[in-house]
Amino acid sequence: MCQGCFNAPVQNSDAMALTAALLAAAGGLTQRIHEGVVARGFEGVRPAHGFAFARLAPDGATVTDLAVHLGVTKQAASQLVDELVGKGYVERRPHPADARARLVVLTEAGRACTQAAEEAAAEAVGSWADVLGEDGVRVLADGLLRVAPGGPIRPAW
Amino acid sequence: MCQGCFNAPVQNSDAMALTAALLAAAGGLTQRIHEGVVARGFEGVRPAHGFAFARLAPDGATVTDLAVHLGVTKQAASQLVDELVGKGYVERRPHPADARARLVVLTEAGRACTQAAEEAAAEAVGSWADVLGEDGVRVLADGLLRVAPGGPIRPAW
DNA sequence: GACTTATGGTCAAGTAGCTTGACTACCTCT
DNA sequence: AGAGGTAGTCAAGCTACTTGACCATAAGTC
């Protein structure tokens, strides 16, 4: 097992370089998506909002669901929802099955913003395909999904 | 419902999935490295410090260099250096060629911590090799370096 | 050499996004 | 019914960052 955890590890400096490259790629992509969203006319949104949208997209979610998805406390998630309500991107509805809970759903503006984010993401990733080729991007994405299946979305430092 | 009826935003959701996977991988790796560093007995350090160490490692650097490298203001970088000085990991020396500047260099403890971080990083990446194989990791790293050559290290949201 | 502008660094104050703690309303299990 | 767990919010506090002001030195111009 563990073919080379200790005996033939990847060079240390390689490991650090990989980490830096991962952060750079993730950060750069996030930034470009954000810029694309802003360029499409949605202001006052942060990248974190986009990841919230992704969780809310299909059928809405509760504040607690959001908190788990984003890796923050439910208080923080609730504040984020407050902010999005204020900007008109989401609204709180009574939960159909639990009177304690409230279902947070996207408004029409929220759906539009979500679509803008998806377009911007596709555009940014598309520019990667110019460098790596379609297959290269697929290999990259596949590898990442295998090493970080359900990892924390939120940057941890 | 006909799940093929959407007008082909499949590419879009792929792009979002890739972004999420990148963030998850970067965040997870960073977190594991940090845990490894703490496990080796270095407390009171944050992941950001590790990236500062990486910049300081060869011959030291100025506060402004650090700020650029980390993607923060020089005030923030200066505060980070204050913190590291307080913990004994770095020290400020007069700059040999510029009386305005000060050269921030690693202390012995700082070098030990840097090495611990490299070990932890190699260990974390090694566990990826168990999943992807050594070649898989190499392909991943290579691809990332090509799409994000000098991207921002700091998570931008 | 004197003058002007740019650069390295710090001090001080303010801020955004998060945390912990305390609380209410409601659900669930026995 | 009662006990304990869960969803959500309010309030206060913290931390890592920011902007703005400032000084000392360097570099360019005359």
What do you see in this structure?
The structure is a homodimer of 157-residue chains. Chain A has 157 residues and is mostly helical. Chain A has a domain at 44-121: Arc Repressor Mutant, subunit A, CATH 1.10.10. Chain A is built from five helices and two strands. The first copy, chain A, has helices at residues 12-39, 47-56, 63-70, 74-87, 108-147; strands at residues 90-94, 102-106. Chain A has a two-stranded antiparallel sheet. In chain A, helix 1 packs antiparallel against helix 5, helix 2 packs across helix 3 and helix 3 packs across helix 4 (74-87). Chain A starts with 11 loop residues before the first helix and ends in a 10-residue tail after the last helix. In chain A, 39% of the residues are buried. The interface between A and B is large, with 68 and 65 residues. The first copy, chain A, binds a DNA duplex (30 and 30 nucleotides) through helix 4.
Question: What attributes does this structure have?
Answer:
homodimer, 157 residues, mainly alpha, Arc Repressor Mutant, subunit A, two-stranded antiparallel ribbon, 5 helices, disordered N terminus, DNA-binding
What's the SSE blueprint?
The structure is a homodimer of 157-residue chains.
Chain A: H1 12-39, H2 47-56, H3 63-70, H4 74-87, E1 90-94, E2 102-106, H5 108-147
Antiparallel strand pairs in A: 1-2
Chain A binds a DNA duplex (30 and 30 nucleotides) through residues 46, 48, 62-64, 72-76, 78-80, 95, 98-102.
In a few lines, what is going on in this structure?
The structure is a homodimer of 157-residue chains. Chain A is mainly alpha-helical and 157 residues long. In chain A, 64% of the residues lie in helices and 6% in strands.
